[in-house]
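Schema walkthrough. Field components (list of strings):
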Amino acid sequence: MPANLPPQYLELEQSYRKAKSAEEKLRLLREMLACLPKHKGTEKIQAMLKTKISKFQQQEEKRKKKGGRSAFYNIEKKGAGQIVIVGPPNSGKSTLLSLLTNANPLIKEYPFTTRMPQIGMMRFEDIWIQLIDTPPVSSEYMEPWLGSIIRYADLALLLVDLSETQVLEQIENTKRLLKEVKVSLQGFIERDSESKIAKIPTILVGTKLDLPKAKETFELIYQLYKDKFPLLTTSITSLKQDDKFKKRLYWELKIIRVYSKIPGKPPDLEEPYVLKKGSTVSDMALKVHKDFAKKLKFARIWSQNKYKGQKVPKDYILNDKDILELHI
Ligand SMILES: Nc1nc2c(ncn2[C@@H]2O[C@H](COP(=O)(O)OP(=O)(O)O)[C@@H](O)[C@H]2O)c(=O)[nH]1
Ligand SMILES: [Mg+2]
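Field assembly_structure (string):
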């Protein structure tokens, strides 16, 4: 007997495949079960869903009992990307958040002032990017849920204070401590948070460049890490006006903005669609509307320096700031 799954179920299933957290997966599985028509043809699917739900419930129970290291915390993604700020105590994490976003975290000259993740939205040109400030990575104490937050971010910034004498130790220590919670900060890689050790694309950021000796320290870090991490510097005094910093964060998120245009009308330049770098015309169509992807006949494109309304095939790879007119 055919299962005849309703479209709502198929949509939920798609979201389930993309879901990042166990919590979200559990919620989606429950919704899938709820909207599944209950007849003979769906018995197998019902059973499969129930098995998965109970598996996730058990995991959740265990986590709650164990507490400690494996505690779970997940911050809902907003905007075009989620960037987590990590580093040793006093490295300038909260300062960076307050300079780049509307958030107002507590900033003090003593360590461990930030106990909960602080969230802020950073405006970059025509999009918003979510930044999360976190409590310190330290061998003295580490919030048990810290790993779970970093794991699901799209990008991490590893901050180190360039006026510290022990910067190299701090970089290596931070990486080691995070490895213990199954997070590997890596520079030039594709992200992979599915495996046991989550590999997170990371920018190494030297802070407090205004302080004495900071430039020399950065030079040293640059020589040692330039092949391993993208590198940036900041300071309270320069960051406000520094659009290059934001641009680099955007670049390392590996996303593009594409504007949609309805035939015969001017393009909508207010609200870009945000896609992964490497996305095609078909991916854009799917993002605009799932029917568009199926019905798409051709597309016309306007780009920064090449196209002015030419036709492009469905598998054409889009660039940042392309304007796309979908014909169905
Ligand atoms: N001179 C200087 N001080 C900074 C800079 N960034 C942060 N600080 C100071 O360093 C201390 C720790 O900063 P904070 O943002 O709370 O660090 P966190 O513990 O990593 O969140 C505070 O006293 C800040 O004012 C900077 O760029 N230059
Ligand atoms: Mg702080």
